[in-house]
Amino acid sequence: MSKTTRRGLLLGTGAALGGWATRAYYTDPVPVGERLGMPQIDPMILNDASELSATRVAKHITVTDRFDQSSITALRTELKEAQAARRPVIASAARHSMGGQSIARAGTTCTMAHEWMELDRTAMTYRTGAGTRWSTIIARLDAEGLSPAVMQSNNDFGVAATYSVNAHGWPVPFGPMGATVRSIQIMLADGQLVTASRRDNADIFFAAMGGYGLIGIITEMEVAMVPNTRLEPSYRMVAPLNFGPEFAQTIKATPDMQMAYGRMDISKDRFLEEAMMITYRPTADQSDVPQAPSSGWLSRRARDVFRAQLGSDIAKHGRWWFEAGLGPWIGSGETTRNTLLNEPVITLDDRDPDRTDILHEYFISPENFGAFIAACRQIIPSSYQELLNITLRYVQPDAESWLSYAQTERIAAVMLFSQEKSVRAEEDAKRMTQALIDAAIRLGGTYYLPYRLHARPDQIVAGYPGLRPFAAKKRAIDPGLLFRNALWDQYISKV
User: What is the CATH number of the domain that holds 248?
Assistant: First the structure.
């Protein structure tokens, strides 16, 4: 990173200097909450992927270069200033969370955009800046015949953000992404820059894993990588009520399986009555593994089919045929691990100013998954919500994160809804969400925390037994409660 002094942090100009771009708002900031559909004209109003979390911040800092001693000193000064002004601080990347988890209301939001990587082939790890996007990581690893061990199914997100929500994806047999992180460098509220791992400062390491930025600001990470491989897909129709056990058994019985997921028919007249399991195993020939292409015509065509589903059961039938009928035929050839991972979420963007895409995610044990699907059949159709997709994933147990969503093996149901940007639609979504969470908890499962903050307080306590210990650990590490976000303010601060 180039030399940066406090004088170089030009407040109120938005100028980039020495890898930092800053804006400041020094009148009394008025929290605007989540005004639905607020136009993004004011640079001091930030939003997230929900487009429903418009929030006024006091200061927005963007870090674009690798941290050096000068910029570390500047960040410490920023934290001291925020503490003196009693402003909260939170770090973020692409802000793909959907309930204000990545924004500090009336505080300092730090966008991490410093992208760099160093490979260690001997250790099979890479060291990278916290703000590095997965698209950059894939491109660099792909050129070396390597691949991320675990990431989400899209490449838009920042690597430290993935660790901070402890996301999972299609790769098996790994658990959430935190299982593949070897160490992190993190700045705590008192300005200490510490290295944390399973051996050193383990309490900080496990609290920051899935800790939503509430422990400190991660500056860099060391993460495991694996060889890139040629893969061959297999498609199998499975009865939805039996999907959980069959999915788990298939993965356990196939040691060389590398990727796996499921899909379900969401048409209204056949709602969740069919499911398909897609798995990937290495081909016999692993020579000359080709590099991953960017999104091609098939992805663009898939978007057209996907978006046509809105309000049309005929289109939903067509989409299911496209995926379950045509998909196995046109997608039966070889692919590579990185090709499957190298897809931006923007490919399926709705491009509709009056609607937004909202994710839900529920984690249920394989043996109880059929009962959860039965509950979904009762809850979702009467909710006035427009379901566009369900992806099913297998998640290994996570006994490390304080806020683990997979204390035992789980099947993840990732649901994508298209929602109007209206107060009425938000209320309808809230009712549906609470009903789905109740069903998940009744079956011993839980829900994912990076999405809309619609859960009741009793639901987050029931779904996350580590919540109270996490809150106590956070208060011990950050006694002044410098690092805060909407998730903390609405739920965790009250336990």
Answer: 3.30.70.2520
Domain that holds residue 311: 230-455
Query: What's the rounded Cα separation, in Å, for the pair 152 and 176?
Result: 9
Query: What pLDDT was estimated at residue 286?
Result: 93
Q: If we measure between CA atoms, which residue out of 68, 82, 69 comes closest to residue 22?
A: 82
Q: d(Cα 5, Cα 174) in Å, to the nearest integer?
A: 43
User: Considering the domain boundaries, does residue 218 fall inside one?
Assistant: no
**How far apart are alpha carbons 327 and 344 in whole angstroms?**
20
Residue 8 CB: number of other CB atoms within 10 A?
A: 17
Residue 2 has pLDDT above 50, yes or no: no
Q: Residue 10 falls within a domain, yes or no? A: no
Query: Which residue carries 């976000």 as its tokens?
Result: 485
Q: What is the DSSP string of 321-387?
A: IIIIIIHHHHT-S-EEHHHHH---GGGG----TTEEEEEEEEEE-GGGHHHHHHHHHHHSTTTT-EE
Report how far apart, in Å, the C-alpha atoms of 56 and of each of 33, 53, 104, 117 are. Answer: 8, 10, 8, 33
- For the chain, give the percent of residues with pLDDT over 90: 78
Number of separate domains in the chain: 1
Domain assignment of residue 384, yes or no = yes
Is 399 within a domain?
yes
Please determine, for residue 445, whether its predicted confidence score (pLDDT) is greater than 50.
yes
Q: What is the pTM of this model?
A: 0.91
Residues 39-90: pLDDT tens digits? 557 889 999 999 999 999 999 999 998 999 999 999 999 999 999 999 999 9
In 3D, which of 172, 169, 97 has the Cα closest to residue 392? 169
Task: Look at the alpha carbons of 438, 249, 172, 235 in this order and tell me if their dihedral is positive or negative.
Answer: negative
Name the CA dihedral angle for 187, 154, 114, 452, rounded to a multiple of 10 degrees.
-50
